Request: fold
Amino acid sequence: MEDIGIVGVGQSNFSRRCSISIKELAFEAFKEAMDGLEIANKDIGASIICSSLYDKQRSAENPIAEYLGLNPRPTFLIENACAASSTGLRVAWSLIKSGLHKIVAVVGIEKMSGQTSREAAEMMGRAYDITWESSFGLTMPAGYAMHARAHMAKYATTEEQLAKVRVKNSYYSVKNPKAAYQKALSLEEILDSMPVSLPLKMLDCCANADGASCIILAEGDIAKEITRIPIWISGLGAASNTGVARRESFTSLVCAKEAANQAYSMAGVDPRDIDVAEVHDCFTIAEIMAYEDLGFAKQGEGPRLIEERETYLEGKIPVNVDGGLLCKGHPIGATGGSQIRTIVMQLRGEAGEVQVKDAEIGLVHNIGGIGHYANVTILRR
Amino acid sequence: MEDIGIVGVGQSNFSRRCSISIKELAFEAFKEAMDGLEIANKDIGASIICSSLYDKQRSAENPIAEYLGLNPRPTFLIENACAASSTGLRVAWSLIKSGLHKIVAVVGIEKMSGQTSREAAEMMGRAYDITWESSFGLTMPAGYAMHARAHMAKYATTEEQLAKVRVKNSYYSVKNPKAAYQKALSLEEILDSMPVSLPLKMLDCCANADGASCIILAEGDIAKEITRIPIWISGLGAASNTGVARRESFTSLVCAKEAANQAYSMAGVDPRDIDVAEVHDCFTIAEIMAYEDLGFAKQGEGPRLIEERETYLEGKIPVNVDGGLLCKGHPIGATGGSQIRTIVMQLRGEAGEVQVKDAEIGLVHNIGGIGHYANVTILRR
Reply:
């Protein structure tokens, strides 16, 4: 199945980028992805723009594609909440596999600073069912706080264990020049931070950001020609979940489990084969649930993994050694692409100080909404 | 290439549907598409929701997919202005062709009545480049009026010829119980209607509407099993265009020409082989340009086609005999799916009073924005 490769990855700095347009932001990521590739813009057969469009520009795919020099090739936009750009990767894979295109660019983009925090929170609220969820006051932190409470009640998970996820991710954030927050935090700083939706405090939560990512995929033979080290797409899994109100369990995300099973099965590997992973740590509890949903730990044993430092670089499965969403910031549509970029750099051996030695197989876990959508992608050198 | 079939099509009534939610609206189309199909909801491997989200619900794919009983299968949203649901068809085709899924549902949806006309016009304006286009007052009718003026200047096209497109489409609209406007109009009524952006008058323009469409696609062997008359996807073409300000020519839509060439080439047919067509008549001039861009008439000779009634049922190439966007109304994300439904019904021989005799090959031309995006799809019985 490994006949489609990732040939280019790029990312803008993630932070508050008030002064530039989404077109310029997209260009930063696109330029990095194209650097060193032996192709011209006209060789890209289609582009997929992935975004929740917090910016005022609607139908952003045409202004962006034209700015990147990708006209007159087809372009369209995919929205899938925070999972948009990994869904973009899945669709791009299909467009190539089906024979419609040979090279496809997936551009993730979000500019959230054009809205006040209150406006952005209101827009984000309308991403879940406006009849039964956001209208009753459900917010993103509140949804994940329910998951955290359930995990604490069933498995005696502690606030310290949650905070230790942020300690790890912030420890690595100082090595990532593109992260919005590059500062190692102490356990106390995290535990003492302002309550948001208890047990989640300010530093248990990722922050909005402006940013762009870009992934370029190519059909196998072309991939080998145009880049030095293509990274192969080995497993793809995707699933959705019910609205929050209708879930049977709050101790895991069933769609993530389902997506992981599909991806492992397609790649013919199991959790022990994964050398390095990026998981969707929009909140600290989300990373702990991901350990379990992906099979890195048994159900209920996720907290032990962080306690025992097994997800640090020296541990058995390094996770989010680029700082994660918690420290990079979370520009909705761009996040999945940023996670994929991190794993591609690891598998190429280009991850610098946070390189996982001899990494051969990597995994990306990208979630949309409060576990409404899940994509799991397995990549191989 | 004809190994993927359309097995089900559905459409809600298009009109002002203030009192129902987008979930209920989607269900009307989905139910019709599933009627008579020998499958259950759980057999649908993925759903694609196609919309520009004029409704307040953001990330509508999950609320809709859950309401339709399509969880926990993956679902995502495609936005591509007015071309969204034909782009959805293209992507669904790829998802099946690539082996990821066997049956995919494409749901087009738009609910525009929750906004005032002024709000909707403002949102629509932000669908083209907000830096260089809508900020200078460009609106959808103004964009197409520029195309109309250019065609009049170069080919001596008249306002009467434009109006005759609406005469034809309104003549057929009375046979379409799902159209928002079911009334035959006289040439005088159209010419005397209120100026909008001259030469385009009120009745040269389609109107906003609420509505949903649904297309269900299946892999070939399954298609033959689960439905009586599968309709095969024979040609697919897609392209984009620059922003309006940077176009070399205003007498045609270059992206439509390009998409048509791709589709004809993939299907191995030429314009003379097409028995019946649906074209994107968001404005009367758009249908005339479509005649030329699709090769039904030579460049500049589109007006003669309508003058000579060649696009009526008795003519050489019947076009928009369901009333077109002009009479059905234009619920952005749902329109492409409605066009596809019309052609599928024609090829199945189920078009009733507007049936084109022995129709074997049909074409759908679906445009986004002011010719920013184009999809051309060729279907075959």
Remarks:
- DSSP finds 13 helices and eleven strands in chain A.
- The first strand of chain A starts at residue 4 and ends at 11.
- The two ends of chain A are 14 Å apart (CA to CA).
